[in-house]
Amino acid sequence: MSAQPFDPRARRADFPALGRVFSDGRRLVYLDNAATTQKPRAVLAATRRYYEESAGNVHRAVHRLAAEATGLYEDARQKIATFIGAPSPKTVVFTHGATEGINIVAHGWARKFLQPGDAVLTTAMEHHSNFIPWQQAVSARGATLRLAPVLDDGTLDRDAFRRLLTPEVKLVALTHASNVLGTINPVAELIREAHAAGARVLVDGAQSAPHLPLDVAALDADFLVFSGHKMLGPTGIGVLFAKPEMLDAMDPLLTGGEMISRVWDDHATWAEPPQKFEAGTPHIAGAIGLGAAVDYLAHLGHAALRQHEQKLTAYALEQLGALPGLKIFGRAPERLGVISFALEGLHPHDIAQFCDRDGIAIRAGHMCAQPLLRRLGVPAVSRASFHLYNDTDDVDALVASLLAVRKFFHAT
Amino acid sequence: MQLDDLYQEVILDHYRHPRHFAELTEGEALVDEENPLCGDHLKLDAHVADGKLTDVRIHCQGCAICSASASMMAEAVSDQPLEIIRRKAASFLALLRGEGAANEDELGDLLALRGVAEFPLRVKCATMPWHALEAALKRLAP
């Protein structure tokens, strides 16, 4: 992999929040990137510029601000289409996040087309957002939900996946990368297997879009969703990609203004996609900000980003793995910089509290993946997750905090 | 931010050596509470005899604050009249809401948990056992 390397510590200057020093003198060490990332100045400036200069509504009025707003909004759509390899910006629907994208498909496709006796196949490593909408959809349609199990090393059980992929399965809903285990699933191969079995595939890209190159055309994904705020963009904005024929066949989840073609007293017809799925005034500033985030990531380069994160993850696994009593959940060879762990005899909340004292933000809890945690046999885990601005000094700070919390609780 | 205010010695003592804790199976417990934010889990069983709460047993999978709060609560309510327990529960919950408790002197060791009020994200950890107790009382003495 040839990549123009970048200096992660120098890049911190792009992110105002990372310069934060708390009242106790601690600097922020931000290791909760799988939950949400910090925002670079370019994203903040783009959203601010919209509000300060071009705050009109989109697709409606003829005045200048409306024209500027519409231009910026549609430019952002084009940038995102290019970023994910979508054939046309018309296949990119703005949502409020990955969750809404999945719900649009669960409502507008699954509930419309699933028949009693059909099945949806998902995995035991899904976030609740790629799990509960399918639970709801299958129960409404008399269909069933199947879970492909996870092996001890945190990878998907491919044999079981194939066994479960029977002709009843009409949809496979699959995460590209686990928010708990860090595992990157071989989505290209899994999509091929699913298509061969006659099933459509939804890929949850919430964890992968911030870190990995995506090419929906090469993957042949039927649906792909992700959230802006996990990839340097604003909160409240996300994307649903779907193949044109899927967008045509699906019903809209939300109806109202902006999404119509013609309205009569007793019925209405829908606008063409993507407007068909964007009822009401969208999050215009958010979409523009996400466009700027995508520019920032593209400028950095996926190869360089991946190289840096792989190196940092290897370092973190080595340092954390050397701590006595520390157990890491997930040892997949292909993985993201998402590391969930347990420290023997200590509750994740208490660990996170000590880290917070030292200015270190990690996550503690069930990670919105209760079915997975039940299988791991723990009610909660601690999780550190990286992005481009993290470096070995952040890992060293985490290790020092973990040593301190262990000492505090084990000193009797 | 001083963590010593949060993790006081008496709290650590209850965490390391919890009182009235037991393994409770699904059918045995009177109430089964879960904190949906963090996955902490607590089961509680008790009986009422002569207007007093007896045989308090708790099964707790929680952090130091949750476990210590459950253990201290069990000590504070065991073999106490229901009416005093209800008063203690109201006082304790008010204390954790930062409102100041009406009958503070009745709370005894439980006052060690008042520092939790300074850590808003941890208040639920300390109050969960008491919410479980309130649910149990509703079933035992409606």
Overview in brief:
The complex is a heterodimer of chains A (412) and B (142). By secondary structure, chain A is an alpha/beta fold. Chain A contains 14 helices and 15 strands.
Give an account of the 3D structure.
The complex is a heterodimer of chains A (412) and B (142). Chain A is an alpha/beta fold and 412 residues long. Chain A has two domains: 8-30 and 302-410, Aspartate Aminotransferase, domain 1 (Alpha-Beta Complex), CATH 3.90.1150.10; 44-298, 3-Layer(aba) Sandwich (Aspartate Aminotransferase, domain 2). Chain A contains 14 helices and 15 strands. A seven-stranded mixed beta sheet of chain A has the order 2-8-7-6-5-3-4, with helices on both faces. In chain A, helix 2 (41-53) packs antiparallel against helix 10 (284-300), helix 4 packs parallel to helix 5 (132-141) and helix 12 crosses helix 14 (392-410). The longest helix of chain A has 20 residues, at 64-83. Chain B is an alpha+beta fold. Chain B has one domain (3-140): Sufe protein. Chain: A, CATH 3.90.1010. Chain B contains five helices and three strands. In chain B, strands 1-2-3 form a three-stranded antiparallel beta sheet, with helices on one face. Classes of the chains: A alpha/beta (412), B alpha+beta (142).
